[in-house]
Amino acid sequence: xxxxxxxxxxxxxxxxxxxxxxxxxxxxxxxxxxxxxxxxxxxxxxxxxxxxxxxxxxxxxxxxxxxxxxxxxxxxxxxxxxxxxxxxxxxxxxxxxxxxxxxxxxxxxxxxxxxxxxxxxxxxxxxxxxxxxxxxxxxxxxxxxxxxxxxxxxxxxxxxxxxxxxxxxxxxxxxxxxxxxxxxxxxxxxxxxxxxxxxxxxxxxxxxxxxxxxxxxxxxxxxxxxxxxxxxxxxxxxxxxxxxxxxxxxxxxxxxxxxxxxxxxxxxxxxxxxxxxxxxxxxxxxxxxxxxxxxxxxxxxxxxxxxxxxxxxxxxxxxxxxxxxxxxxxxxxxxxxxxxxxxxxxxxxxxxxxxxxxxxxxxxxxxxxxxxxxxxxxxxxxxxxxxxxxxxxxxxxxxxxxxxxxxxxxxxxxxxxxxxxxxxxxxxxxxxxxxxxxxxxxxxxxxxxxxxxxxxxxxxxxxxxxxxxxxxxxxxxxxxxxxxxxxxxxxxxxxxxxxxxxxxxxxxxxxxxxxxxxxxxxxxxxx
Length: 527
Ligand code: DCS
Prior knowledge:
By secondary structure, the protein is of the alpha/beta class.
């Protein structure tokens, strides 16, 4: 490959922050899986398995999840509004979808999905999202507080750059560094990071194991991640004394902790927090003046009877705290849940408890990327304001939604049972989200072999698994489970999505079991 030898931009001179972070769900294992797939296309039968099963990424439709018909009908009609004037459309699309598409198209600039929109998102779609939030929580929500975004990831990154130590933020906390860092980031989780982080002295509390979007965004924005450990022995629950301990340590180390990230339901750990636990978090963040960054993208993925999703905003309002008492940013997405439309890049963040001056700055930041994509905006409004009882397509919509949710719950149980049945593996229940996170008690000889190859033991296991079975998973160390200062060192995990289609899951488990047995036979402690 030709390259410019005198170029001033080289791997040595690029922004070093870019080189520090890693994002393992799309990391080396995923790349190796793609290489194997290409190799198998060129020479069919070259591997002892028929196909690669991508359990590394929460990518529902790639693993066969069917899109919700109502969503797709509305999107198609919005993209092709001429269809709204043709007779045969009434035969092909439900009246529900036709009516909704008509309403949406009316509110789009130029009545076209191809136009830039308001940078915060189309007002009528934000109204739909706000009314969906209000119906979910039983507390009011305002369209002015909603930012439609290109998925949740972009919102998180931007938010992490604005938090002041007090509840209301002031412009004085924005520095030149903020604006410089802004240009290397994109937008919801990203928007959050841009807003909260001023310098390395600003810390953000994050769970460990963590979804690496957070560490990556914090690093890119020049802040400091303050990890708190989830308790594997307590079903990956969040213990408030552990959070307080990490917070105090960070303060003693000279950091200004500005926000606390909570992923509920959890990724990669699959726990759903109890209301009591959420109340403790709200009380703690209120007392310490921390912004709650509530990653609630798995709110529609809860599989157990005894747990229910409650938004942090609802919990705070139920305790009697309004926006003068506590700042909360909630992230949601159309990528997960029953919709699984991750390639469409739709989501929202609801920002509560920031002053008008800060909201103005956030709108300005949003305007730099002009607007979120329009398909994502439409889908987000549909997900938060779906067909209701009495609408013609309500039953069909609910049937599709429930079929997906029931099947996910079943697959979660099947996988947990399969992992738990393997020698040296333990696996907590998947209460929510879309991942199993089993712990592997690896034999000493396997750990030694990993060391000889200069990889972590869980990566060694995941690579062997992929090569032998075509099953791609993410090593637990990709969620920085072992790199935190305070974490249970020497525990090894893999993350495996529960998304494999029902008609393939038994075959996948058979491959997994056969591999695990031969792996253990090779490395089992003989003493
Ligand atoms: N927050 C959490 C906790 C997530 O798990 C994800 C995606 C996101 C935010 C970002 O979602 P969108 O940007 O698509 O809205 N999780 C990835 C993962 O761990 N595997 O696949 C997707």
